[in-house]
Structure formats: structure tokens, C-alpha cells
Amino acid sequence: MSSQTGEEWLSLREAAEILGMHPATVRLWADRNELPSRRTSGGHRRFRKADIEARLRQESEPKADPAAQLLIQSVLGRVRFAFTDGTLNTLPWYQHFNDAARDAYRQLGRRLLDLLLRALTDGTQAALLRTEAIELGYAYGSITYTSHVPLADTVRAFLYFRTLIDEGVLQVAEIRGARDHDLLWLEGLHQIQAITNEILPALIEGAQGEGDSSTRN
């Protein structure tokens, strides 16, 4: 059904068929004002096709796995604790990072966590994530180079925080347990390892002043 404004309207049954939902579910969404609708003079529900298509796109968008969010929160908690309990200040390599380098590394750390979250929620972008991981490694290396931080200390820092990530992974794995339907999530964990493995070589090259990833194949 089309209105004079050119909008196409659908019946409850038609809207439910497009969404792949039971009509009762669509009716409930409308009752809760989660889905716009109007009633005809006879009391029948009508839905704009544009609204139904928008809802369909929303339902099809990938949603972050709760375990992925838990993993990121676990890693963040460990990193924050390392900063607040004074552990980092006791490590000799940490003393070689000036304030500017520490701030820059924190910003890159947030980018790394974003990469890890995307690896868990969108494994189809593996090639893109790998490219971004290499670029991130060069960014780490560039900071090391310009701040005159010893390369060995930068590698120690990377391995330290890599350990925090690994511990976060183990914690989440213990919480979830070994279940068959977690196979796709386990593939995401392999992707995390692949990402961090790409970062370290790029970091070393960048720290040696060997250019950036945009100049390499």
C-alpha cells in the first residue's frame, strides 16, 4: 500500500515476513514503541517499509560477543592495576620511557584494544586487521625511535603487556569453559595472536628507523 507522499506501507503480516519474525513479536515491538506504526481507520496496524528495512539492517548488524567485551575489560583491569599498584615503577625498563612516550604508548594501547575487539567480533576482516596491526607496530617503533628508548626495553614492554592480554584470554576461557558453540570465538582468539605477532616485528623495524609500513609490501 502506498500513500500520497510516495511512502509504502505494510500490513503486520507483511512486516513480519520481511523481518523473519512472528507477527506477535512485531506487534509487541509496536506496542513498546520500538517500531513505528500507525493504525488505519479500521484499527489495523500499518508499518512504513522504510522503517522495517531499517530495523532489518539493525538486526543484521554484528553485535559484540559478551565474552569479547569481558576480555577487553579484563585486559583493561590488569593494565590499570599495573599502573595504580606501582608494579610498573619497579620495572627497570619502564624508567626509560619519558612522559611523552608513556602518553603516546597509552593512546596506541587503546588502538590495540580496539583491534582486538574487532578481531573477536568481525573475523572476516582478518586481512585489514593484519594491515592495521603492522601500522600500529610501526607507530610503536616510531615513538621508540624518536624518544631514544632502548629497543630491548620496548620489546620488554611489549611482551609485558602481551602477557596481560594472554592472562585476560585465559581468564575468559576459564569462565566460558570448553563448549562446542564457542568454536567461532576460539577462532577469534587465534586472530588476536596473529595480530600481536604482526605488531612486534613492525615495532622492531620502526624502532630502528627503517621507515613505516606505507613504504613496504
From TrEMBL:
GO molecular function, one term: DNA binding
TM annotation in the entry: none
Entry keyword set: DNA-binding
Pfam families referenced in this protein's UniProt entry, alphabetically: HTH_17
Cited CDD domains: HTH_MerR-trunc
Domain (Helix-turn-helix): residue spans on this chain: 9-59
Protein name, as recorded: DNA-binding protein
